[in-house]
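anyone seen this seq b4? input:
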Amino acid sequence: MMRAFRPDNRQAAGLRAAALMAALAAALVLLPVARPALAQLGGGNHDSSQPIEVISDELEVQQANNLAIFSGNVDAIQGEMRLRADKLTVHYRNSDQAEAQAEAAGAEAGGAITKIVAEGQVFVSSPKETGQGDVGVYDVEGQTIVLEGKEVVLTQGDNVIRGARAVMDLETGRSVVQTKPGGRVRGLFIPNQKQGQTQ
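predicted toks r here
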């Protein structure tokens, strides 16, 4: 427990310097919309070539539009990453398009899913992080997830960042959190506590 004390001038100067350093360290979470906050909440090194399993109550396939629309308690799993939403729209290339693109790139055909759009109570999780919002777009080829909504929340352990938009790079682990004009990105960071420390 923190004890109240009244510092002398030297202690007060030291406290002001420490407060300034803490403010600079925390500046990334309390920035206006023009300067987004940065966080390492994307995990990094996600393999977007892994199979994606989708489970839902209902599926509608629109072959002419290259869309598969999953609705009702939707869960999508790719490796250690999970995506949950009310509705998931999967954009894909048909086999002819996939083969033509692979041939042009000198590679084998595969990975026909290009983008997944999640809507309604979107929740993304990996072993160490979670993210939630109203709408999410997973760019499979670009290896990014964009979450948007009234309140977007990213968590890593006890640490929490809140904004209106988050862009997570799954390859590098870098995340950018933004908010609406006039709003503020907010973060709560819990310092590590030593085991057995008395208060």
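The first strand starts at residue 37 and ends at 39. The CA atoms of residues 100 and 153 lie 40 Å apart. kinda curious what u guys think
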